[in-house]
Design brief:
By secondary structure, the protein is α/β, with parallel strands linked by helices. The protein has a domain of 251 residues: Type I PLP-dependent aspartate aminotransferase-like (Major domain) (Aspartate Aminotransferase, domain 2, 3-Layer(aba) Sandwich), CATH 3.40.640.10. The protein has 16 helices and 12 strands. The chain binds pyridoxal-5'-phosphate (PLP).
Length: 491
């Protein structure tokens, strides 16, 4: 029987650093500017008239403050985080360390090509690796997120139809299980959204697809494995059908964990796909920091890639700007370089065997949870899944407890809840992605916790309805917490 997490202790009255402030107390004394540095006189319009209202504390107080804060939230370095779709896997620290190397961290995008050859080579090597992993022909590393990658590709699709057939097409098809960014990107790129109901087995309904395909359809945009964690078995037929109707096919590859080294979007007939380096390729994410969503494409889309394109010219790396059919640049300079460093370091350190191992272990872990949880939880599609498993809290709901309550209770046991109520087509949905980086013991603990919660549904429903009990803040009004967030200390 798992015991509640020792969070209570950690929570113990972390005082706000402003309350610990004592006039005149310091932790760090800036030395006078060394003579070797130029002395710059700021114009008086830029200088402060009064000192900033910063807390005055000793160095150890500041360190303790941040250490305490770091454990008040849930993160992957604290405990299990089986968040479906967003792949909260462990990212080796060595890749962060490499990205912090001064040669990488302090480089400026305004440096000359001659002095940036090393960084350009790194981006070139990463491009080649990602092209190989996806089975595509070309790539842009510019987009800063998955959603931006989607929009970039759709703008290229629009340019392709315009250039090759005289006019862009009107609409893009997505399944009803699509990630929320998909319809948003479609609208942003100037298309209409056509939503396709899934078949009973959770897959694309090929008959329904045939009915909506016509000369207005620019593309089909799908996630594979789909958001139910299932591989689209008819993907070759689906992609053929779209191509025959003159459309293009886009794979939302935000999360490539299940395919690495096993299957490639390019071989399945996709014309473009993005991948989230901040999910699959070792960039910590979740706090809204920088991301990277490169888009890999087939040859026919190459003329439309964002500028500049990285090429090799006379044995030197070179940024090519003069590309008349390009959609233009979608990010300042060349994308988020620090994330490119992490991704290449990760890929090289894993090697091709290691890449395949990631996919195999993420699939095994998800299927282990599927089998172990099937006694207590409804599993709509209880068939072998890929990297994530979708379970439903419908049996618990019939006994008065919603998935929302289960998610909140998990926090008391020190586990981050899975993604809930998505995909929308499964009632009381929990989307669980254990990832490859968790051990058998962690998975077994999670299964015990989930079974304990199922017992609590009958034995202590009030505990569930009022959970969480052991977190620094209790159940929030989520709408106002997101909409009227106030993080100021001084009013
Ligand atoms: C995360 C995700 C996205 C969006 O990626 P962002 O970097 O958050 O914009 C798109 N599709 C799927 C399936 C995802 O999991």
């Amino acid at each position: 029987m798992p015991s509640p997490h020792p969070l209570k202790q950690l929570q113990s009255e972390t005082q706000l650093i402003f309350e610990l402030s004592r006039p005149g107390r310091t932790g760090f004394q800036a030395t006078a500017t060394p003579a070797s540095l130029p002395h710059v006189k700021l114009p008086s319009t830029l200088t402060r008239k009064t000192a900033p209202r910063l807390p005055e504390v000793a160095e150890n107080t500041a360190v303790r403050h941040y250490t305490n804060l770091s454990v008040r939230n849930h993160h992957i370095d604290r405990d299990f985080y089986p968040l479906g779709s967003c792949t909260m896997k462990y990212n080796p620290k060595v890749n962060d360390e490499l990205a912090a190397h001064p040669g990488f961290a302090a480089i400026s995008p305004k440096q000359s090509e001659a002095s940036s050859q090393g960084a350009m080579e790194l981006m070139y090597e990463l491009s080649s690796a990602l092209i190989e992993i996806t089975g595509m022909d070309h790539i842009t590393l510019q987009p800063a997120a998955g959603a931006q990658g989607e929009q970039t590709a759709l703008l290229m699709f629009r340019a392709y139809h315009e250039k090759c057939f005289g006019k862009p097409r009107k609409a893009v098809i997505i399944p009803d299980s699509a990630h929320g960014t998909n319809p948003a990107s479609i609208v942003n790129a100037g298309y209409e959204v056509i939503q396709l109901p899934s078949a009973d087995d959770g897959m694309v309904d090929v008959g329904a697809l045939k009915n909506v395909l016509n000369e207005d359809i620019a593309a089909l945009m799908i996630t594979n494995p789909n958001t139910l964690g299932l591989f689209e078995k008819k993907i070759l037929e689906i992609n053929d059908l779209v191509h025959q109707a003159g459309g293009l096919v886009y794979m939302d590859g935000a999360n490539l964990n299940a395919l690495l080294g096993i299957a490639r979007p390019g071989d399945m007939g996709f014309d473009a796909c993005h991948m989230n380096l901040h999910k699959t390729f070792s960039t910590p994410h979740g706090g809204g920091g920088p991301g990277s969503g490169p888009v890999a494409v087939k040859k026919k889309l190459e003329p439309f890639l964002p500028t500049p394109v990285l090429v090799v010219l006379n044995n030197k790396f070179h940024w090519e700007w003069n590309r008349p059919d390009s959609i233009g640049n979608v990010h300042s300079f060349y994308g988020n370089f620090g994330i490119h460093v992490r991704a290449l370091a990760y890929i090289l350190s894993m090697g091709s065997e290691g890449m395949r191992g990631i996919a195999e272990n993420s699939i095994i872990n998800a299927n282990y949870l599927r089998v172990m949880l099937a006694d207590c939880y409804q599993i709509q599609q209880n068939v072998p899944c890929m990297h994530e498993v979708i379970i439903s809290g419908s049996r618990q709901k019939a006994r008065g407890i919603r998935t929302h309550d289960i998610a909140k209770r998990l926090l008391d046991y020190g586990v981050h809840p899975p993604t809930v109520y998505f995909p929308l087509i499964v009632p009381e949905c929990m989307m669980i992605e254990p990832t490859e980086s968790e051990s058998r013991e962690t998975l077994d603990d999670f299964v015990d916790i989930m079974k304990t919660i199922d017992k609590e549904v009958d034995e202590h429903p009030d505990e569930l309805l009022s959970a969480p009990h052991l977190t620094p803040v209790r159940r929030l009004d989520e709408a106002s917490a997101a909409r009227t967030l106030d993080i100021r200390y001084y009013k």
